[in-house]
User: What shape does this take?
Amino acid sequence: MHDIVDLRSDTLTLPTPAMREAMARAEVGDDVWEEDPTVRRLEEQAARRTGKEAALFVSSGTQGNLVSVLAQTRHGQEIILDRDSHILNYEGASAAVFGGVQTMPVTTERGFLTASQVRENVRPANIHIPTTGLVCLENTHNRHGGTCCTPEEITAVAAAAHAHGVAVHLDGARIFNAAVALGRPVADFARPVDSITFCLSKGLAAPVGSLVCGSREFVARARRVRKMVGGGMRQVGVLAAAGLVALDTMVDRLAEDHEHAKRLARGLAALPRLRLDPEKVQTNIVIFHVDRDGGSAELAAGCLARKVKIHQIGPSAIRCVTHKDVDGEDIDRALDAFREITATW
Ligand SMILES: Cc1ncc(COP(=O)(O)O)c(C=O)c1O
Assistant: This one.
């Protein structure tokens, strides 16, 4: 049990004692010179986990996506993505600002483009029209409530893109959640795509860092772009050391976060004016709607007064995310708070 139940995001997880110890002991060197042995170990481990030839340590998921887009597109091109994707909504239009790339947002059911949507949206050759440079996928899908798609779904989408000579990037910020939820290795999700980014600093609880993985040739280009955007870091093995502990010790336990999310969702669905389908909760994110004017603000304030923090993501929508710093008793406390606040609704 924790003093404050913080369900706002899995990015709020604190590093474990083993991570702090590994950080203190880390062997380091200048990583821009590719001489940091701990970063190299982390990159090798990331390449192995994703089944790719190479990997690059970057500062954040946002930087990983930016580097991946910039390394695979040219100015004036277009990227196809889901309209609720993180790249489109939460990365400050970075692809447009730094890459001169415009977005083609597509409305999807669970956050996942289908092969036919890719075929419909790839641009034909015509001097009036931008060329399609990249298809971007997201798994698990944040704004759709942690939904996951299967490796087979990704394979179908990638085949449609590749048939038109278009590369595919997977924003796998929470790909380990998808892998644990569906009982499949991360490499199965990564195999069909040209590049994948995953985060160490969300459910895996490391303080900083993401990895961009792909072919050796892609990673060489990504390394150059990372330097251009100021992401070349020096004795950064102190951070990579925590990432290695995250990959070694924090993956399997994600199943516990998924169970907590499911239990939270079932409890919420039983309360008045809260709308969600708990059967659709697949991983650690629970998004629900409040059918009452001003209800979501009332809920957020009421929870805060009871030391439970939740995240309002729209006028009527709330997001709760489970993670390693939320235990079973915390879920009970959160549900008690929701029950008290909605008792008179
Ligand atoms: C799906 C997805 N992609 C990318 C990111 C960006 O990661 P970061 O916060 O490390 O920049 C996030 C962060 O929440 C995310 O949810």
